[in-house]
Design brief:
The chain is an all-alpha fold and 416 residues long. It is built from 21 helices and no strands.
């Protein structure tokens, strides 16, 4: 049993951050403020030096987020995403049909546009329907967050951690490998998500007809630039699939996001307005997370704990469970970075690597801190729509969704 004395200060600070995030409704603090304070503490107390802290920041992820926020801001400011979503979901004639359509559309789209991207552009979409159809906004936000988390599991470009996994090891034809092992359980999990929400929010579901309206595009020029940005993303997605098959290196997610944001930055007169509207607090949150994780890693606590426990870190059940739990404390992208360090010099199977993708991403359905996309979506809803989801509101549903996810992926990866 580890004593409190043997636990490094950086780990204690990280646990304190987690606890404060859980009770943030009572403290009135924002998530980014809590994590920033934690990062400041590990720097002030010397748990990590400034130069080392800077080296642990993943600038690919930071650049990606900034540029995706620019694209998301243009889509929202122009009114194009609201108009497009109304046309996409116009066949849904009831709340049941709308929710299941949102789950599968958002989930499948997140396989190719990344769940963080869908967290940015999905919030205004679901909030539009919640307001117009008088649906509980929390139901729609949960449908968005859980679906983009689950959907992103099945693709090597569905999430930043999947990209890290696919690029850090030698996986031939990563799309084929991910689809082979993860596509069917992902579709099954999305279906189960609908039934979970249907049961927990049964009073919200009814058969009353929905009267679809198509909000007009507010800025046609900005909407055209937004469509160009989306087209660029789709082109790069195709390249991500084809280039590895040709033995050529695929572009990084930062390159994709930068290319997509350039039409807006160069040609839109609202460029500075959109840049000012970026959720800079979320960017600061990510930087702080990387610093916190760096301080924990250099403390050696994780490595020593694994050795003392004698756990087989390469078994599929261990990979799934350890990532579901560990991601709650440091989010799934940093957790995968830590886990990849553990298996860096070992030979692991493709099943183990897709299990790492599944476990680290499933983690996002347990708590708010489990996935970056949760934080992006919740902070976006709070900032733009004054709609808050507490830690325990998320946990109440997340426990059930995560348990179902674990059983589904465990069945498909271990038992068959």
């Amino acid at each position: 049993m580890l004593s409190i004395i043997s636990i490094p200060l950086s780990v204690i600070i990280l646990l304190g951050v987690f606890i404060l995030v859980a009770f943030r409704q009572k403290t009135k603090l924002k998530i980014w403020q809590i994590v920033l304070a934690g990062a400041a503490l590990v720097l002030i107390t010397g748990q990590i030096g400034p130069a080392i802290a800077i080296s642990y920041i993943n600038y690919t992820v930071i650049i990606f987020l900034i540029c995706i926020f620019i694209v998301g801001g243009a889509l929202t400011e122009s009114g194009y995403i609201q108009n497009l979503s109304s046309r996409i979901f116009r066949s849904a004639k009831s709340i049941d049909a709308l929710v299941i359509s949102v789950i599968f559309f958002m989930g499948i789209t997140s396989m190719f546009l990344l769940n963080d991207t869908m967290a940015v552009i999905g919030v205004p979409v679901v909030m539009l329907f919640a307001t117009r159809e008088h649906i509980n906004p929390k139901l729609m936000l949960f449908a968005l967050m859980f679906s983009i988390t689950i959907g992103s599991i099945a693709s090597p470009i569905g999430s930043p951690q999947n990209i890290l996994i696919a690029s850090s090891r030698s996986i031939h034809s990563p799309f084929l490998v991910f689809f082979e092992y993860l596509l069917i359980p992902t579709m099954v999990s999305l279906l189960f998500l609908y039934f979970v929400l249907r049961i927990l929010y049964r009073d919200e579901f009814n058969r009353r007809p929905m009267h679809h309206e198509h909000p007009a595009v507010k800025d046609k020029k900005l909407a055209k630039l937004s469509k160009i940005s989306l087209s660029i993303i789709l082109i790069f997605v195709v390249m991500e699939i084809i280039l590895p098959l040709l033995g050529m290196p695929e572009p990084s997610i930062a390159v994709i996001a930068v290319a997509a944001s350039l039409p807006i930055i160069i040609f839109s007169k609202k460029r500075f307005q959109i840049i000012r509207g970026i959720d800079w607090s979320t960017i600061l949150l990510f930087i702080s997370l990387f610093v916190l994780v760096g301080s924990v890693w250099i403390s050696g606590f994780i490595q020593n704990t694994v050795l003392k426990l004698g756990v087989d870190v390469f078994s599929v059940p261990t990979i799934i469970i350890s990532n579901v739990i560990g991601s709650q404390f440091i989010s799934n992208v940093p957790m995968v970075l830590l886990y990849l360090k553990l298996i860096e010099y070992s030979s692991v199977s493709a099943v183990a690597l897709v299990a790492l993708a599944a476990g680290s991403t499933i983690a996002g359905n347990l708590t708010i801190m489990g996935a970056a996309s949760n934080i992006i979506a919740i902070q976006g809803a709070e900032k733009r729509y004054k709609q808050t989801i507490s830690f325990f509101e998320f946990l109440k549903i997340g426990v059930l969704v995560t348990l179902v996810n674990i059983l589904v992926y465990w069945f498909f990866l271990v038992l068959i």
